[in-house]
Amino acid sequence: SQKIEQNSEALNIQEGKTATLTCNYTNYSPAYLQWYRQDPGRGPVFLLLIRENEKEKRKERLKVTFDTTLKQSLFHITASQPADSATYLCALEVGGATNKLIFGTGTLLAVQP
Amino acid sequence: DAMVIQNPRYQVTQFGKPVTLSCSQTLNHNVMYWYQQKSSQAPKLLFHYYDKDFNNEADTPDNFQSRRPNTSFCFLDIRSPGLGDAAMYLCATSSSQGNIQYFGAGTRLSVL
Predict the structure, then answer these.
(1) Which one of A89, A92, A100 makes the best mutation probe of the B interface by having the most chain B beta carbons within 10 Å?
(2) What is d(CA A6, CA B37) in angstroms, rounded to the nearest whole number?
(3) pLDDT tens, chain B, 112 aa long
(4) To the nearest whole angstrom, how far is the Cα of B40 from the nearest Cα of chain A?
């Protein structure tokens, strides 16, 4: 079955450092992969999308890489800030015109001042 | 601002008492989704609508039903809530022309 794995433990880093979150998947070949941010008690908010033919995507302090051979995506936040503290969810496209996604359980990032 | 709105934000119901959660959108998206998310777990897709076409996930219990009377509104009906149905329920929308899902703030359901 399709499986998505994200770091189950919280990631604690110091303000100003780069946070790197990992998303690994098995038994699927998604056309694209997305990253969402979720704050406590709120719905996920879209951050970045990367397609299977793209190696890297950037948006301001965010960078995503996608290695379809390793079946892995890395999500980087540079110059991290306490306001970046949240849960970050990886989501895989699972096909069709309806943009169905399978989500990972997310990684909780805590940026210490 | 265009958005996805879920009501209520918090819902308390009794074991076995039917409950309806609502979702509305001003994005004019033709795809709407309902997810269930339990604490520290991934959002789990229950079903989705592509226009008026209903698509149920294979492992969604029969206890969960949905209605979409028009483009803007979608409802989640839980016919006989059990303690295991306590969760955050998320509504999301997407355009069939795009790939991004836009989520509401969610409804947290408690079952007593």
Answers:
(1) A100
(2) 16
(3) 669 999 999 999 999 999 999 999 999 999 999 999 999 899 999 999 999 999 999 999 999 999 999 999 999 999 999 999 999 999 999 998 778 999 999 999 999 9
(4) 7
